[in-house]
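Task: sequence design from structure.
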């Protein structure tokens, strides 16, 4: 190859190299770096590689060298260096063994003895091959295909005349193949053809199928049957030899006399292992080659009752759900008897038969005649007896275990604490302190007995929490309003499907001391009859701060009432002076003394409507009083409590009466008060001011939780009305009132 570079000096000097050449090219070729001449450096064989393709790279020697590539293709020309190849194979009915073809003398003319394949690795004229049979033999080659290529052709080697074994017993056939090269190359191969004597009659059995019945547990060597075959040939071709061939029988189990055809069994047969045997017997003549005939022998083994019934398992264990109805299937067993007929007919029975289980023969299903209760009996054990119908019968036993699975049919029950017990707790107890532990059990097992604990009621302030194991701890610090009895409603639920649960009551009495045990037990007793929907969580009436200020609240209220009366008297005096008429007790007034005065523009309208009743109090205020009175159906008066003055105002006023409650709420810092019907001022209009007792000592009860007049409608009992039933509040109030006055009264 030649490359030109127009540059001068090193920039124009060109070097050549094989560019990315394959390993074959690198092995066979090389190139001169300076001249670009390509040389052969290895032996080139066209039969291996007929063409080489590669790139030559020309590269200058400049500082920034430039290169160019050219594709080079080298075609290898053939040379007649391979002689033809001859391969001889067997074909058709002619067998080939160790390079010898055996052909019977009765074969017709043109019988193919072998298939000859001729090929040449060269090409062109060098591969054109001529193939012939050398010598004077009764065989010739015939082309096997008209479309074969010159390089590879197939021929049949066939007979040209009838063969005679008595004249010539064998032939040596030589095949010569010559190619068309210059000089020509040739090769030879030979085949020995052996002519065999004609033995055209095979031995024949009559009948061709032998069937015989033979009992098991025989003695070795007992005769089974005789087989007989005949041959139409004569001489040695008719002499027969018997043998057992084919079939899937153990070697040596059956033997046949080679001369007589008598068949004997050499081992004891067992029908349960093999119930029949099938094999071939052959009769071969003594001709060359030998011909033989075959027959099929079937030996059917008869049964004897030599096997006990057999259960598939050595023991059965079944699991069933409790509470299943009677006659429900419990399990199924499998029993077999390797015998047959009546010897294999098996009947099952329960032993001992206590009437709890029965067996359904035919399906071998175990049925229960009872309904299971795992908590009473969790396991049943008995035996099944299997008896076959043989003579004499044979039997066997198997153990059965019935495990009753648990069903979540038992709710948990609480063992600790008792619903009627209580736990004393000091108000100064710090959070995270252990309070109580709820312990419960479940008669079920597994997940059905795993329990979860939760507080579902009686914990509105979130003071307590319970762990999943039932441990109750204090979650928050106590405040004065938490003093008193707490009833926690604890739900104990199992993890069954569906789950079952029970409810436990945990009473916690929060106080510094227990001064009156009977009183606390009374509170707990009332709690047991209080609906669970109502929370019992501390003192519904008092707080520690309220009790410390009760005396001051009463005194302040008393002074406020005196001040209001004085103001009312002054207003009355001014009004009477303006009207120039004196006040008469019991006389119906034309306007409400305590109603807001109308503006100047509406004064005429007021006079026109002076016969109408004054506007009632705010409906929301009346509703609050009404709902409070409705929720508390008991008298808040307690004669035994004398620690503070008590004032009762009616919650519902007659039409036209002065709204003292509203007046006090809007103008007085006194605690909320309620007038009772026994007050001399509650029966007549306006006399609530005029006929007050001279000493201003009202009979009633003050709200120790009130710190201002706006709390009148938010009375503490109303705030807790949803926590207690009416009965409980009525029953407990008197004892709790006395209890508060003794246990929680501040030193002041």
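Answer:
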């Amino acid at each position: 190859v030649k490359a030109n570079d127009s540059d001068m000096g090193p920039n124009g000097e060109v070097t050549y190299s094989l560019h990315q050449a394959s390993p074959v090219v690198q092995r066979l070729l090389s190139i001169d770096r300076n001249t670009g001449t390509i040389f052969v450096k290895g032996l080139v064989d066209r039969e291996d590689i007929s063409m080489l393709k590669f790139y030559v790279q020309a590269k200058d020697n400049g500082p920034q060298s430039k290169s160019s590539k050219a594709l080079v293709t080298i075609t290898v020309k053939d040379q007649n260096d391979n002689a033809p190849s001859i391969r001889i194979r067997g074909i058709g009915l002619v067998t080939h063994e160790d390079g010898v073809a055996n052909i019977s003398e009765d074969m017709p003319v043109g019988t193919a003895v072998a298939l000859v394949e001729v090929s040449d690795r060269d090409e062109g004229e060098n591969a054109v091959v001529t193939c012939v049979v050398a010598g004077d033999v009764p065989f010739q080659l015939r082309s096997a295909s008209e479309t074969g290529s010159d390089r590879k052709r197939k021929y049949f080697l066939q007979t040209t005349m009838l063969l005679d074994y008595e004249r010539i017993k064998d032939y040596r056939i030589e095949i010569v193949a010559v190619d068309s090269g210059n000089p020509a190359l040739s090769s030879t191969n030979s085949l020995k053809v052996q002519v065999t004597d004609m033995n055209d009659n095979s031995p024949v059995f009559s009948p061709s199928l032998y069937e015989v019945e033979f009992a098991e547990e025989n003695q070795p060597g007992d005769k089974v049957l005789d087989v007989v075959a005949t041959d139409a040939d004569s001489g040695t071709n008719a002499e027969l030899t018997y043998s057992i061939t084919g079939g899937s029988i153990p070697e040596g189990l059956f033997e046949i006399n080679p001369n007589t055809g008598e068949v004997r069994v050499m081992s004891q047969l067992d029908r349960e292992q093999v119930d029949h045997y099938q094999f071939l017997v052959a009769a071969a003549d003594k001709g060359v080659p030998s011909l033989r005939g075959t027959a099929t022998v079937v030996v059917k083994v008869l049964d004897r009752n030599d096997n006990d019934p057999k259960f598939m398992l050595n023991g059965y264990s079944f699991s069933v759900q409790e509470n299943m109805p009677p006659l429900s299937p419990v399990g199924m067993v499998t029993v077999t008897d390797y015998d047959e007929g009546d010897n294999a007919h098996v009947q099952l029975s329960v032993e001992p038969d206590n009437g709890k289980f029965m067996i359904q023969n035919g399906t071998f299903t175990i049925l229960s005649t009872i309904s299971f209760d795992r908590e009473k009996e969790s396991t049943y054990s008995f035996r099944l007896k299997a008896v076959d119908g043989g003579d004499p019968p044979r039997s066997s036993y198997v153990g059965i275990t019935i495990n009753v699975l648990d069903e979540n049919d038992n709710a948990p029950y609480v063992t600790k604490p008792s619903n009627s017990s209580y736990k004393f707790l000091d108000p100064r107890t710090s959070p995270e302190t252990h309070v109580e532990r709820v312990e419960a059990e479940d008669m079920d097992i597994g997940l059905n007995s795993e329990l979860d604990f939760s507080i579902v009621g009686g914990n509105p302030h979130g003071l307590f929490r319970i762990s999943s194991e039932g441990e109750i701890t204090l979650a928050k610090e106590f405040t004065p309003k938490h003093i008193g009895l707490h009833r926690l409603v604890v739900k104990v639920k199992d993890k069954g499907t569906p789950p079952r649960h029970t409810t436990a009551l945990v009473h916690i009495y929060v106080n510094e001391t227990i001064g009156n045990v009977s009183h606390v037990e009374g509170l707990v007793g009332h709690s047991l009859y209080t609906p669970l929907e109502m929370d019992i969580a501390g003192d519904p009436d008092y707080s520690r701060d309220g009790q410390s200020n009760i005396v001051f609240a009463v005194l302040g209220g008393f002074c406020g009432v005196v001040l209001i009366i004085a103001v009312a008297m002054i207003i009355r005096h001014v009004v009477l002076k303006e009207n120039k008429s004196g006040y008469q007790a019991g006389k119906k007034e034309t306007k409400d003394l305590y109603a807001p005065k109308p503006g100047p523009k509406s004064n005429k309208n007021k006079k026109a409507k002076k016969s109408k009743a004054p506007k009632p109090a705010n409906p929301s205020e009346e509703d609050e009083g009404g709902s409070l009175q409705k929720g508390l159906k008991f008298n808040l008066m307690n004669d035994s409590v004398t620690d503070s003055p008590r004032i009762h105002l009616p919650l519902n006023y007659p039409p036209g009466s002065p709204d003292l409650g509203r007046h006090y709420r809007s103008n007085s810092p006194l605690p909320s008060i309620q007038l009772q019907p026994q007050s001399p001022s509650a029966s007549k209009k306006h006399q609530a001011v005029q006929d007050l007792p001279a000493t201003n000592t009202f009979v009633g009860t003050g709200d120790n939780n009130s710190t201002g007049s706006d709390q009148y409608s938010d009375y503490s009992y109303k705030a807790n009305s949803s926590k207690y039933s009416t009965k409980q509040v009525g029953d407990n109030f008197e004892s709790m009132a006395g209890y508060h006055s003794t246990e929680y009264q501040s030193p002041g």
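The first strand starts at residue 14 and ends at 19.
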